[in-house]
């Protein structure tokens, strides 16, 4: 086996297609759209590359390409956390030996960029897909949630990486029974803190995005691994999610007319994408168009409250609104992901609502200076 750098369109296409061989026949893997993957990996199309760099590597065994990895560095991360981090992501391998070769190539590249620590999987930051699935292999995962074989964790650890942090997922089946305490908290918040809630206004989408960016970068700024999203990254993600947005599922909480919290719940488009096998054309588009209106499960991707309003009941108030909206549309299953393993406030909120832990993704790290 040998390592092959991705240096042109042909190698990039091979890089994108590696998972199709690894997951052939796996009923829980959902192929990403090939066009979207090409955009994610191309400077000039993915706004990550405005503040980051990456190199892609393939693992070749004879005439076959059997593994891959991306190595990246991010100036925004380093400025936020005061360290030099290198990341690995888009990781797929056929064996422990292959994993060691790929991770070694990624380490050498980020070390050459001045990194003092390597972390991953990050594709390319915590604002994108991140973490290795270590718990919850029994069902397909919702959109933008990584899936991998159970063997990968041991292979990464054999290459010298150790756990840095676990990212948790919680699930609940509908119809949703909102605890009475949530309604009491919501009523008190509306009465005492002058809280009002509303859905996103799709006719003022750009203005609403500006509010999301302001709240997101304020509410998450102290979180482990947080990297502030740029305007271009917010716009890019919004453009990807906008076709699936249900206005009642994206809600703002306001105090005296100022937005200070938001909630983002998105129907799980993976349900519609799975039959397409990564290709919209010629026939995949029909699977998607037929499936989208019939989706009755989704993912709560974000719930953020700015610091000065965190003890005023805004989170339960938004959850009450979402629960009512999901019941009105007949949603049968929801996933909350991801949350940090030590974010007790959010994890306790999920459990108190009746959610159960359903998956865990692990981020690994390794010192490059030891």
Describe this structure in words.
- The protein is α+β, with helices and mostly antiparallel strands.
- The protein has helices spanning 9-22, 34-40, 75-81, 96-112, 152-158, 180-192, 205-219, 231-241, 270-273, 284-291, 314-328, 344-353, and strands at 2-5, 52-61, 64-74, 85-92, 117-120, 122-123, 129-130, 132-135, 162-173, 195-199, 250-255, 258-267, 297-305, 333-340, 356-367.
- Helix 6 (180-192) crosses helix 11 (314-328).
- It is globular.
- Strands 1, 2, 3, 4, 5, 8, 9, 10, 11, 12, 13, 14 and 15 form a 13-stranded mixed sheet that branches. Strands 6-7 form a two-stranded antiparallel ribbon.
- The relative contact order is 0.16.
- The model has no long low-confidence stretch (mean pLDDT 93).
- The chain has 2 domains: 2-167, Gcn5-related N-acetyltransferase (GNAT) (Aminopeptidase); 175-331, Aminopeptidase, CATH 3.40.630.
Give a brief outline of the structure:
This protein has 12 helices and 15 strands.
Measured distance between first and last alpha carbons: 28 Å
CATH architecture annotation of the largest domain: 3-Layer(aba) Sandwich
What is the helix content?
A: 25-40%
Mean pLDDT: 93
Fourth CATH level, the homologous superfamily of the largest domain? Gcn5-related N-acetyltransferase (GNAT)
From the spread of the alpha carbons, the general shape counts as globular
Number of helices: 12
Strand content: 25-35%
Structural classification: alpha+beta
Number of strands: 15
* Helix and strand run: EHHEEHEHEEEEHEHEHHEEHHEHEHE
Q: Largest sheet, if any? A: 13 strands, mixed
The gyration radius over C-alpha positions equals 21 Å
Total domain modules: 2
